[in-house]
Amino acid sequence: MEHGVQMPSVESEMIIRVPRDALHSFAVNAFCYYGVPDDDARIAADVLLESDLRGIESHGVPRLEQFYLARLRDGRINPTPQIKVLHESPSTALVDADGGLGMVTGFRSMKIAIEKAKVSGTGFVSVTNARHFGIAGYYSSMALEEDMIGIAMCNTSAIMVPTFGRDAKVGTNAFSVAAPSADGRHFILDMATSTVSAGKFEVAARKGQPVPIGWAGDADGVPTTDPSAARDARHYSPLGGAPEMSSHKGYGLGVVVDILCGILSGVGPSAALVSGSGVGHFFGAIRVDGFRDPAEFRAMMTEMMNDLRSTRPADGYERVYVAGDREHQAKEERLRLGIPLYPDVVESIRRVSLELGIESPV
Amino acid sequence: MEHGVQMPSVESEMIIRVPRDALHSFAVNAFCYYGVPDDDARIAADVLLESDLRGIESHGVPRLEQFYLARLRDGRINPTPQIKVLHESPSTALVDADGGLGMVTGFRSMKIAIEKAKVSGTGFVSVTNARHFGIAGYYSSMALEEDMIGIAMCNTSAIMVPTFGRDAKVGTNAFSVAAPSADGRHFILDMATSTVSAGKFEVAARKGQPVPIGWAGDADGVPTTDPSAARDARHYSPLGGAPEMSSHKGYGLGVVVDILCGILSGVGPSAALVSGSGVGHFFGAIRVDGFRDPAEFRAMMTEMMNDLRSTRPADGYERVYVAGDREHQAKEERLRLGIPLYPDVVESIRRVSLELGIESPV
Fold first, then answer.
1. Which among A38, A131, A170, B149 would be 20 to 30 A from A233, CA to CA?
2. Which strands form A84-89's sheet, in the order they lie side by side?
3. Residue of B nearest to A267 (CA)
4. pLDDT at A5 over 80
5. Tens digits of per-residue pLDDT, B190-207?
């Protein structure tokens, strides 16, 4: 979910590219094996594959075996949730996700927000008893084809240290905002409220490279450049990185996500989340025509985004991006050439295929 | 609006403290002198003084003469705006602020959001043809006594440089979220989406101290430690400060504010704002009881906030704060002891008093 700095290209270690649809079928079959109904399995696979297409590998198929399937197997994820609206108003709802796959209950909860927006102008849904839903940007993007602005958030267990603090108390609590443009290259901000996400420490540790001060603290909360110490301590820094760089803002944003996902839903904020009780989600949909003509809105969006893209680059950089540009680029390329897979992901797919007796796409 | 790092105390240069009510009367009289109706003048003075009480001097009475009164005098602010709802749905409205004082039209627009939330569960208002409204946190806080979560945003002219860029294209676009607690020490996040705001460069320049790399660029967009160069170039860095510290997130957040304030309202994003056409505002109100019992929500808020406050501090720090704590502390102290004023602010007050023939509080 971190895509501001170009990561070392996946190409360098890639052995194969696999077509999106082949991986999608594989994921559907794997979910179905564990009792997920066919329609739900397709939704969950859609979310996973969209993540891979957008180049956010940390949330896609590479996570299928160890995260989603493992939890379906041990009962921490409910394959057949009874999603219930517990309370509602014309533009709001509290939803119980019944421990279902986060991608399925996330999709259905965002649909509720969109339906409410159709009637009332806006719709907001807070979800309790939820499970991790993959990329927040999938759900915010669902609003785009409806001429709506979409919002999606998720809280996580506490792995981020408040400004001036020593211990983790807030999650890396993700949030996303999407808004439609005229040319299909929509604005999609999809970010954790920490400076960087866990995956970057893995990459640095594997390469034996130090990480910048401001990414994380060690076990005592002291800023560290040692990626292994940072990864093991799980003391990530809020966006900003350090007090003098206004990390209180990243910390405050993380708490906002906790309020909307954890407290509004009742499941609890990051520090109160206990294994098995799940997490909270928050979804929002805002009809553009509740304010102005959507075509005019889209045209002005594209004008702004093109102006931002045309910003003269600073020395050492090639161009300026708008949130969503890189994901859009990756998606075009990967739909054409297939999704590149690391060797360990290929192995994981083959293992799942053998164990479950389903066809392997690799 | 930047309060994560303790600024050099105002005490060091303070000559006097003035009671809040005396400054309020002075501000009311000054606004009335320029044709602002009495009720509106009281609202505008309330917002200004709330800023001073919260310790955000950059947005309070120190700004009265050079900013608000100057613009009332030269016609850039309309003292008697006809605020109009141009378009609406049950939970949304587009408002034309008619160039009125931002504090007055902000207050009335947030009231519209709250009234819509009472009926529909949530209310969102985007405002065109607006003027600077002081602290965003005033408007988000208006939701608190209604058992609502409040949101307020404002875009500004382009003074922030997109990640990888050389030129300013986005404003320091502020936004605020407020949520009610059980004990009156509410959560109030009130932040610019830049790393720091303009005031910090002034302070550093006055003291001849370098600023950290990551606060701003020089005229060529190159990161600088020279506070004067930074102040003059107005090339502020997005929250994050540098690409490797995820400044694309602060940049993305700034654009979100532009979308909701500038594009949804039609006034335009930061880079398109021209002097005299004003800025855009965005207000939101979300009823807590659209999701769950407000008393339970408030209790869980206080529990979370106390847990965050109890985080063990890192070496060199005394304690951990939650967004709003410092402002709450400052307000209690300043209501008791009066508002501390710098010598140049006292001079400004005396000058205005003489010019307009209104009583001076100092």
1. A131
2. A84-89, A92-96, A122-130, A279-287, A148-154, A174-179, A187-192
3. B300
4. no
5. 999 999 988 788 888 888
Query: For position A14, what pLDDT does the model report?
Result: 58
**Interchain proximity A304–B258, CB inside 8 Å:** yes
CB-based contact, A271 to chain B, within 8 Å: yes
Report yes or no: B92 at the A interface, CB cutoff 8 Å: yes
Q: What is the pLDDT of residues A343-356, one digit of tens each?
A: 999 999 999 999 99
Choose, out of A87, A94, A115, A122, the residue to mutate when testing the contact with B (most B CBs < 10 Å).
Answer: A122
Nearest-angstrom CA–CA distance, A331 and A322 = 15
Per residue in A220-248, pLDDT (tens digit) is 888 999 999 998 999 999 999 999 999 99
A87 touches chain B (CB under 8 A): yes
Does the CB of A225 have a partner CB in chain B at under 8 Å?
no
Find out whether B94 and B85 touch, Cβ atoms under 8 Å: yes
Instruction: State the pTM of this model.
Output: 0.96
Find out whether B28 and B18 touch, Cβ atoms under 8 Å.
no
Minimal-distance CA residue of chain B relative to A193: B249
3-state SS class at A74? helix
pLDDT tens-digit readout, B270-283: 999 987 679 999 99
What is A10-80+337-362's CATH topology? Hypothetical Oxidoreductase Yiak; Chain: A, domain 1 (1.10.1530)
